[in-house]
Amino acid sequence: MSQEFQVESASNKSLHFRMLIVSLAALALAAYLSYHHIVVTKNLNTGPSNCSINNLLDCDAVAKSKYSQLFGIPISNFGLGFYLIFSYILFLPARRLSKSFEIDSVIYLFSFLAALVSFCYLMISGFLIGKVCLYCTLLYVCGFLLFVLAIGLAKKSPKLSAKSFVGKLGVGIKHLFSWISGLSTAQLVSDFGALALSALCIFYAPNALSNYLTSPVTKSGETASLETEILEESYRSWKYQKCFEFSYTDSGEIAKRDFAKGSANPKVTVVEFSDMECPHCRRASPVISSIVNEFQDDVRLVFKAYPLDPACNSAIQGSAGHKNACRGARAMRCAGQISDEKFWLVHDSLYQFLEFDSSLIDSSEDLFTDPEERTRYKVCMSESYPVGVEKDIADGQRAKVRSTPSVFVNGCPMEYFEEWLLRYILAKELES
Questions:
Q1: Quick one: which of 15, 27, 36, 17 has its CA closest to 142?
Q2: Which of 22, 131, 354, 432 has the smallest count of CB within 10 Å of its CB?
Q3: Residues with Cβ < 8 Å from 10, sequence gap 6 or more?
Q4: Which residues are CB-neighbours of 134 under 8 A, at least 6 positions away?
């Protein structure tokens, strides 16, 4: 090893170590985000995550957005593979290249890529999703910090500091290829193993973890007994709630009728009060529909809009509220006066993304390809005659709905909505 390499290597050793710590932290964050993505998208969580704090700070919303995946693979898994490779480069740099500035140029290149991708996804989160994920933000901070440290690394190397920004990247690309082409057989095997592990993290690990979390497992008798006891206690608590009798009319004038799907002659009826702008409603609605579909021969789902919007709901006081909720509820009803199928078409369109966007209402008329139907829908949306939203709200006020989603099974309210509890209640009710 040359004297130049020894001097430069010694002066950069501290920065290499700091960057390794940051890269490992980013690796841990990416691993957690990959796990979180599976839990949220597979509806395995029993409630909002600890980083879903309000309408702005909502990591669950970010995980369910269409921007959280690329080619069907969670973005966090690409981060997991990237930081695994980067940590490997930082951990074993000295035996790979002959000069320290060659090592640092490769590190500079990877740090720039980390910062660039972090910046892009920070912009996507802020401007396209409109939500902030705290753990994602910490991952972005790691990317920026790595590039700041890499700039300091380049300044300590005269051969790198003399280069322009583009020149440094060019040197990094050149040395990356010279590194790969100069590997011995043993080094090639070890580096190929690192790359294979990275690919495994990106492509295989998510599916393996998802299958593990969603597959039935054999539990010990004690654990199974405890779970059964919790379910039974929750079921008994639900049975003791004060129940309400909801009228159901599937025909007649639009202002007095209801919209439902599932069994026409149900043994159990589920009534869902929902606000289109409520993030938890947007998470719960497709889950409730999916559960009802499992029992569709015996269960009916009745959807009732309960906008948390003072414009149409007198129970909501003050100016605060969901300013598009009344209009969204009206949109579904206006579609319903054409047909039941159109009601659910607009409903599913408005609830299709976890993040609400008012443009979903504005573009809803495009769902009607028939000119006559589109005209009827537009006229309904422009007028103020009752379309049944008032009836839904009155039912909700009578049932003392205080928040959304509020779910009633055979008129008895669930104290809180949980997928596992609704499924258990339905199964028990159908048994009896």
A1: 27
A2: 432
A3: none
A4: 51, 57, 59
- Same domain? 141 vs 68: yes
Q: What is the pLDDT along the chain (432 residues), one digit of tens a residue?
A: 444 444 445 457 788 889 999 999 998 999 888 888 877 776 565 556 777 777 678 888 888 787 888 877 788 888 888 888 888 888 765 445 455 667 788 888 899 999 999 999 999 988 888 888 899 999 999 999 999 998 888 888 777 777 888 888 888 788 777 776 766 667 667 667 766 776 666 666 666 655 555 554 444 555 456 567 778 888 888 888 889 999 888 888 888 899 999 998 999 999 999 998 888 898 888 889 888 888 888 999 999 999 988 889 988 876 666 888 999 999 999 999 999 999 999 999 898 877 788 888 988 998 999 999 999 999 999 888 788 999 999 999 999 998 899 999 999 999 888 888 898 999 999 987
315 belongs to a structural domain: yes
Round to whole Å and give the CA distance between 297 and 303: 18
Q: What are 17-26's pLDDT values in tens digits?
A: 899 999 999 9
Same domain, 149 and 182: yes
Cis peptide upstream of residue 405 (ω within 30 degrees of 0): yes
Work out the burial of residue 46: count CB atoms within 10 Å of its CB; fewer than 13 is exposed, 13-18 middle, 19 or more buried: exposed
- Domain co-membership, 202 together with 241: no
Are 72 and 149 within one domain? yes
* Domains of the chain: total: 2
Q: Is the domain of 123 the same as that of 169?
A: yes
CATH number at residue 413: 3.40.30.10
Strands 73-74, 268-274: pairing is: unpaired
Same domain, 322 and 401: yes
Cβ(306)–Cβ(401) below 8 Å: yes
Strands of 306-426, DSSP E: 406-409, 412-413
Domain end among 214, 245, 269: 214
Helix count (H) and strand count (E) of the chain?
17, 7
Question: How far, in Å, CA of 409 to CA of 270, rounded?
Answer: 5
DSSP secondary structure letter of residue 67: G
Domain of residue 210: give its range. Answer: 3-214
Name the domain boundary from 187, 214, 241: 214
| Of 283, 281, 333, 288, residue with least CA distance to 308 | 281
